[in-house]
Amino acid sequence: MNGFYWIYLVMIAFLLGYTFCKTQEHKRLVYYSACGFLILIFVLQDYSVSLDIAEYMRQWEIIPALTFREMLVHKFEIGYVLLCWFLERTFVSDRVLLLVLGVLILLPFCRSYEEETENPMIALMAFVALGMYMHAIIFWRQLVAMAILTCSYRFLRNGKFLPFLLVVLAAMTFHKTAIVFLGLYLLYKVPISKWLLLVCSGCTLVLGLFGRPIIEFGISVIYPRYSQMELQRMGGETLLALLWVVTILSYWLLKDRLTEARVRIPFLMVLIGATLQPLCFTFFWWLRIVLFFRVALVPMTVLLYTELFCRKDNRAMALLQRYLPGLHCRLLPLYDRKWFPVITQLLLFAVLFVWYVSELDGAVYQMAPII
After folding, report:
1. pLDDT > 70: what percent of the chain?
2. Which end of the chain is more exposed for a tag (fewer CB within 10 A), N or C?
3. Which residues contact 128 (CB under 8 A, 6 or more apart)?
4. Residue 173 phi/psi, 5° resolution?
5. What is the largest CA-CA distance in the chain?
6. Residue 317: how many other CB atoms lie within 10 Å
């Protein structure tokens, strides 16, 4: 069986263990054990998992021989290059690179979920189910940049632009495209209303219809040497639908909480991702841009789950009470049953497993031979 499926099953076991724990200390122990498991799996991956990893390891051999001037113009960003240079000269095994990257990626996300969500274990499970962990195994530099950006949330909600900018610049030393995160700061003060959603949906439509000439013009201005490059199209319609469904559902269910930072930030990130996603129809590599915002589907999954299955007075239940009172009366007592959280979590991640399989797109996790 594909190793990615085993990872999913083990994380389900951690989720159940977390749910059955009675004390916060035990829950925290299970949570960080799950984080440690994901770091371990990251470290033990075989270098044949993707072509990106093979290139990373080829550059691992090249970078130590570079001069500092050559490092500055290397194909990879200076932060990643300096990290490789230091680790290769300090340690014998190249596995130390994976250990450091695993910690740099997983630990900031885990701490962010613990601070920003009501149920961090569901968030970590969603991180796996929504394909973020699979992307972490393949796109090392970008996921480090995305992990660094989680440190910017506190500055974003407090309106401190300079510290926010410094975090973005730090992320850019691992992946230059992290600069797009500045757009979130600009949008953060804009009131969230149906008019904002209508404007963004209009932009989605325009980008879907005229994405190709927009991308071609952008390449001709910013990267003219790539003007003759043939644009790749590899779908993205399903992700676009998911992003907009989550956006609209969140706006309806969480409308009264959109002023809260822990709701507002992921909501706006998903909205930006939904707006920009149509460009992927024309230019496959645009998915790297959307990925910076798409990761907010993880905390939004927790918000929607807790709203629907942990609060009896949510808008969905109120709608049922008004139009289907009989069904409402049958469902309401279920919220007090001890097994209700277990069943709803298993149901949620059984549904998301379908998405997980589609995200893998044939990718197979293999563990490196242990000598």
Report:
1. 92
2. C
3. 7, 8, 11, 38, 134, 356
4. -70, -10
5. 74
6. 17
The share of the chain scoring above pLDDT 90, in percent, equals 70
Dihedral sign from CA coordinates of 254, 258, 136, 234: positive
CA distance 292 to 290: 5
- Tell me phi and psi for residue 38, to 5 degrees: -65, -35
- Rounded Cα–Cα distance for residues 351 and 347 (Å): 6
What residues have CB less than 8 Å from 297, skipping those under 6 apart? 126, 130, 242, 243, 246, 266, 270, 273
Distance in angstroms (rounded) separating the CA atoms of residues 223 and 260: 40
Question: Could you tell me how far CA 227 lies from the centroid of its own chain?
Answer: 31
Helix and strand counts by DSSP (H, E) for the chain: 21, 0
Among the listed residues 147, 144, 179, 146, the one whose alpha carbon sits nearest the alpha carbon of residue 165: 179
H helices of 130-228, in order, are 132-138, 140-149, 153-157, 161-172, 182-188, 194-222
CA distance 170 to 180: 13
Distance CA 361, CA 371 (A): 30
**DSSP H or E stretch at residue 247:** helix 237-253
How many CB atoms are located within 10 Å of the residue 23 CB? 8
| Cβ contact 368:45 at 8 Å | yes
pLDDT score at 238: 87
